[in-house]
Amino acid sequence: MIASSAVVLALALSVSAGVTQRKRGGGQLVTSCTVPNTAALTFDDGPYMYMTEIVDMLKANDAKGTFFVNGHNWGCIWEETNMQNIRYARDNGMQIASHTWHHKDLNTLTLDQLRSEMSSTNDAICKILGTKPAFMRPPFGNYNDDVLSVVGEMHQTAVTWNLDSGDSMGAEVSAQNQACDDVIAQHPQGIISLQHEVYEPSVHQVLPSYISKMKEAGYKLVTVAECLGMEPYFDGECPVSKRGDDSYAC
After folding, report:
1. If I label 240, which of 19, 38, 157, 188 is the partner at 20 to 30 A Cα–Cα?
2. Residue 104's domain is classified under what CATH number?
3. Average pLDDT of the chain?
């Protein structure tokens, strides 16, 4: 199958350098690394069955990654295996961050709905790891002033990307690899990539290529927090168990 014109266009747009950091509505948005010669490989939509495999692959290549997890999307964050995988990733040097609870388009939600989507996942991560995530990623990369206002309320930083693999849009492996080549050819000071841990070709065919290409180009593969010179988590009490509440239901 050949990647559609929409996929090709999206990949081309992802190559264009954007604003690295900006603040709107009280919250900070980051689109690329600020520490020179660093790259952050990021994985959305988990926790999923490939998480530990990705962790092991990264460790074997002296690399780190960041997992933006949902509360209930491809699976339920409260499943024992998923909680174990999240802890495994964190304990092996990876970063865990929020991708909201239900993976909704945040631009369509009210302020109260935004707070629920973000706080539910933050609190779940806190209960699993004992610490609150300092970073989040809006689903689809969609945000507006209300979204960033709530991000600010949560004391978090929103993260998008400047390299989109296109895996979620059905891009062929060759197109995903070309997207990486195109960005590296421009050699930005830093790269934040977008992949999804739920797509098998992205894990087993594309990820090894991205690791190799970025290292050969001189990038150090680190977490999002490290590539920004920031802390991945912040202090704060974890909430009393709310797993029976509607906002926490899977």
Report:
1. 157
2. 3.20.20.370
3. 89
